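To assess whether the prediction recovers the assembly geometry, we first specified each molecular entity separately, as shown.
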Amino acid sequence: MKYDFKSIEEKSQSLWDKIDLYKVNRDQNKPKYYVLDMFPYPSGAGLHVGHPLGYIASDIFSRYKRMKGFNVLHPMGYDAFGLPAEEYALATGIHPAVSTAENMKRYKTQLSSLGFSFDWSRELATCDPKYYKWTQWIFTQLFDHYYNLKTDKAESISSLIQIFNSEGNAHIEAATEQETVFTAEEWQAMSAKQRSDILMNYRLAYQKIGYVNWCEELGTVLANDQVKDGVSERGGYPVVQKPMTQWYLRITAYAERLLNGLDNIDWSDSLKTIQRNWIGRSEGASVFFDIKGHDDQIEIFTTRPDTIFGATYMVLAPEHDLVKAITPESHKAEVEKYVAYVQSKSEIERMAEKKITGAFTGAYAVHPFTVEHIPIWIGEYVLKDYGTGAIMAVPSDDERDNAFAQKFGLSIIDVVDKTEYPEAGMHDKVGKMINSSILNGLEVKDAIEKICKELESRGIGKKEVNYKLRDAGFSRQRYWGEPFPIIYNSEGLAEALPLESLPLELPATDDFKPGKGGRSPLSRLENWVKLPDGYYRETDIMPAVAGSSWYYLRYMDPHNEEAFASKENIDYWQDVDLYVGGSEHAVAHLMYARFWHKFLYDNNLVPTEEPFKKLVNQGMIQGVIEFIFLEKNNAQKTFVSAELINEENEDQYARIPVHIDFVSDYGSTDSYLNNEGIEAFLTWRPEFKGAIFKSPTAVYPGNNDIQIMTLSEVGKMSKSKFNVVNPESVVDNYGADTFRMYEMFLGPIEQSKPWDTKGIEGVSKFIRKFWGLFFEDDKLMVSDEAPTKEEMKILHQAIKKVTEDIEKFSFNTAVSALMICVNELRKLNCNKRDVLLPLVQLIAPFAPYTSDELWSQLGQADSIHVSDFPEFNAEYMVEDSFEYPICVNGKKRFLRSFPADFGKEEIEAEVLSLEELTKWIEGKNVIKTIVVPKRMVNVVVK
RNA sequence: GCCCGAGUGGUGGAAUUGGUAGACACGCAGGACUUAAAAUCCUGUGGCCUUUGGGCCGUGCGGGUUCAAGUCCCGCCUCGGGUACCA
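The predicted structure of the complete assembly is given in tokenized form:
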């Protein structure tokens, strides 16, 4: 029988579908195992070859666990809200709900063709009102809770109000930005607005002013992704940072628990480190500085309070609230100019900026100890959202402060003598204090202690723990997302909708353009926004991370209408045992999901503190990205050929990605756009209509044989990079099993690599050879003869290696172990049933279609996927000798076999008497001989 | 800039975690089958030198530790991911 993957796949698939092979229910007789993939965003470009990398790995693992006797939950769904569908709607008028539904359909078709063992009855989509009802409900719960630092958990706002009523807020310890203290009487006397404002400072979902990327020309707020080199990716218009009132989630309340929780989960060290750094816990002190001639004070945070006597100036973030107030007339122009410059840059650009920039405000602060007047500057290296947005600058002990002081001629006072620590760098907390009045002579550590006490006793500062982690901006001025379940009364005070009013469905519209002043498209829908009695709705929507922060819980009970999932189901499935997904989600999604989970835990809604016990990062399958260069600040849109770009003029150009289909020789250093490519590009991006293209020798329009060189990079395969490769054609040509094994064979699962189909022939050949073991002249030919010792050894070697490799997610080496096994059995012409039957089971998780077909051809009744995984038996592996490499001074010289039960001394004696050795040790002294049993022998000579 | 990865033949990668560098594949070369090609099968394949016994060099670069380094330490370079509104 010929290996015909098409008919095999159809046959197996229809059988699986018929008996609902992968449907799973609670089963108290089996241990549960929950394998989860990061669900995909259903992009218009379709599933690309990078998605399945993780899905195949998790599917192999699921199938393996199932064969090992576990009740495996392995679901799939869609992260269906998001910006691309909305951008697509803006361009085409097609409603995001329509395009998203189509994309999901396509994804499902694509996923179904790859032989995954998903329980499709649990499929979910975050844009489904039945789903986002609960996303909204969790949001209302966050709105209705605050974080009590005494009990270290979330508690209800109503319990907080009770305390306010009985004793004010003096004894409350909460995660809050509420600074003023009030009594019960004061609270009771407050207006509804005042109370609401105070409660906002406590809620876990709250409002404050934040900055958005505002593009005046497009009249819209842009995602960071849509801003390139300081201009809008679409059209190349200027973008500035604009303040807007927005919703935030108080994730910072959970900073300490998010940090500590990392110790108890099985994630890679690198991923944990990323999260630890992201949380960025640092101990230090906050200090208040008076401002000369003003009542206000500047609060700073420093990790080095000991160096306070070296503080020679201060720097505020350019957006700091006090900048306007303290800047005298004489310096207004300069300060405003600088602030405008900074607001034209994104945060990344600011942090990456190598140039030292800043402006003097003209104001002075009063040093709390020396009482000297020190100048207050603003500078982009101080970020508004980190710490207090203000620093005391100590140029002697901080590199950036030092560079700043050098550049602007500010004074530097050495305060730490490091002569006793010649190895120590500027940032190491060691040395003796000098020039520091009361701290002189103290070690840094002691100085920190002393100065903190001093600050506290003088009431001008205190010890403090600060986190780099910031509260999560949760508002989007967009359409395609969950509407906030929030209404405002006639006074503008926010109220959460009760569960009975949920879901608050996203209203239908066919106009996705932004509202006035950058507000969301929903703000145009007056009938929806306006409610009786002067009430009106929140018009922002939630970000895509909302839906993905809890979806793993919904799979446990996806159709429940009474709760986000029933207690029974949550108690049975508990948490995710294995989570597979890209490391690009290392902070955003994984941090938010952990935060929501802990919040739900505080409310006794989930039984575990952490959602994902074990996490494996799959690397990215990368693609080629092609860019062309657009001149910034030029009304006549002008693209120039890449060879005209150099380091000096680079920042005058924006990189605009081009669809790889338009680019000739894409992926090479000589990639270029010719006339057809330019025309295709202009049709594709009509906003660049009328643009001109310059190469060193020609100009478009005008020349007919222009070559605009493009810049090629390797990077993420993504619709926004226009470089997506789909799996369909590969599956059509080689079959799903070959595709699966090839993606695994490409390399370690966690490593990123560019997509390339070179080499798929090898895997295809392997499957056909494997199939060939069972057939002779197209007829099934399997012998019932007992296998030889050698055959059993080959089989069990493979069982051992494959089992170990699956357990440690080393699928590429598992595939090569299977290849070796098949090659060796072929050499022996082995067709013994007792070898082939376990071999098919061994391959089953990797090649589910082919193995199930062979299984049934061998006369087995049920699907192979409900059979048992073969067990390794060490008996077949016993070796009676081992071939040692004999090294001289660490270099291998020859090989020699010794009986496996030889001890170190026996081997050493034998080796030293070997004739082959004489030539290497002649005229030299043997100093020692190192024997590592079952490894190697090294003779050291001099 | 900061944080996290990665760098091994022409290519993807392997190496029991300090112990035979290059498993398994792709590609290439030669051969068998064929009128021919494809498919299939066999052989060879890191570089340099060679008296054909073998020798020397070799895991991004420069140092170091060790009997022994792809693996550990120090200092760099290049590429990728993240950098809080792509998901």
